Fold this protein.
Amino acid sequence: MNTDYIEIGCGIYQSRASPEGQASNARNVSNSSNASQTQLATMSRQEDGTEQEFQIWDFRHSKLAALILKGFIPPITESSLVLYLGAASGSTASHISDIVHNGLVYVLEFSPTVMKKLISRCESRRNMIPIFADANHPERYSHLVDKVDIIYQDIAQRNQAEIALANAEYFLKDDGYLILMIKARSIDSTADTKEIFKKEVEELQKHLSILKTVKLPGYRDHLAVIAKGCRSTAHARVMGG
C-alpha cells in the first residue's frame, strides 16, 4: 500500500503532508499552499475485493471531502447502505462506493443529461445503484431502496429540508444519519444566508436530532448539517466561525 497516505476513517485516507495524519482544519484547507499539499483519497478495488489503487478525492470538487477536511469523519463503514440524493455525474458517490465496498450506494439523479454520465460510472461499480427520479417523491422509488444507514443530500432546490425529511421518513434507519448540504442561494437568492440556514435547521429539528452544522471552506453560501434519526438531547453547534 502507498505509504504516502494514512487512514483517518473507515476507508478514508489523507496524505502525510497534514500534521499527524489528522483531518486539516479550516486554515489548512483555505490556505492555497497548504491546500495543494493536503489530499484525501479512497481505495478502489477489483471485482474480487482486493485493493487496487488510491483515488484522489479533491475537496474543491466535493463538499463531502471539504467536510472531512474540517474534521468530521462520516459515521460510515465498509458495509453501510447509503442513499445519495443529487448524485450528479457520480464523482463524490464513487468515493463513497470505494468506502462502502461491502455495502451499497443508491445514487439518485433527476437530470436526464447528467443521468447518462452517472449510469456510465455505475457500470464499473457493482455497489452503485442508479435511480432516475425526483427526490421530492420518495414514494416513487421506495420499492428500489432499502432502509439506509446514511442519507447524503446535495440538491439545488428551494425545499431542501423538506426533501431531506421526506426521504428520511421513508428510508433512514432509526439510528441512521443525515448529511445535508444546504445551498442557501438555491433557496433564496436575496435573503440573508444566516436566516436561510436557521430556518432550514429549525425545520429539520422538528423530526431529527441535529448533531452539528459546519461551514465549508471554498463553498460560499453553503452549510453542512449532520443529523441523527433518533431524537436526543444533542444541540446544534457551528464549526468554522
Q: What stands out?
A: The chain is about 30% helix and 30% strand.
